[in-house]
Design goal:
By secondary structure, this protein is an alpha+beta fold. The protein has 5 helices and 4 strands.
C-alpha cells in the first residue's frame, strides 16, 4: 500500500482475465482458449467481477469492449455501481475460487508446490 500513500493513479487491467473468465477467447476468428466451466457466468457475474475491481483503491479500470453492446453494458454497470464491502468482496472471491479451471484462467501464474 506504499503506492497509495504517494497518491498515484492506479490502473487496473485484465480484470476479466483477458477473456478467460468466459467460455472461450477468440481473436481474429481463431479460438485461443475454451472451457466447459467458465468463471462467468458459471460462478460469478460480470457485475460482480467489475464491482469487485471498482471497490479496490484504483483510479481507472481498463476493460475491453469489443462491440457496442459490451460497451453499453459496462457503462450501465458503472452508472449503477455501489462500492462493495470487504465481506461482499470476500464472498465473490470464495465463489470464484470454486471454478475448476482456475489454474487455466490465471495461466500466467506458475504456482509451484
Amino acid at each position: 500500500m506504499l503506492a497509495l500513500g504517494n497518491d498515484p493513479g492506479l490502473l487496473a487491467m485484465k480484470t476479466l482475465a483477458d477473456g478467460r473468465f468466459f467460455g472461450n477467447k477468440q481473436m481474429n476468428g481463431r479460438t485461443l482458449w475454451e472451457t466447459d466451466t467458465p468463471v462467468i457466468p458459471g460462478h460469478i457475474s460480470i457485475r460482480e467481477a467489475l464491482y469487485f475491481s471498482w471497490s479496490l483503491p484504483i483510479s481507472v479500470l481498463i476493460t475491453g469492449a469489443e462491440n457496442k453492446d459490451l460497451l453499453t453494458e459496462k457503462i450501465q454497470l458503472a452508472r449503477e455501481f455501489v462500492k462493495l464491502s470487504d465481506e461482499e468482496r470476500d464472498q465473490i472471491l470464495e465463489k470464484a475460487s470454486q471454478a475448476p479451471d482456475r489454474d487455466k484462467v490465471e495461466y500466467y501464474k506458475d504456482i509451484q508446490s
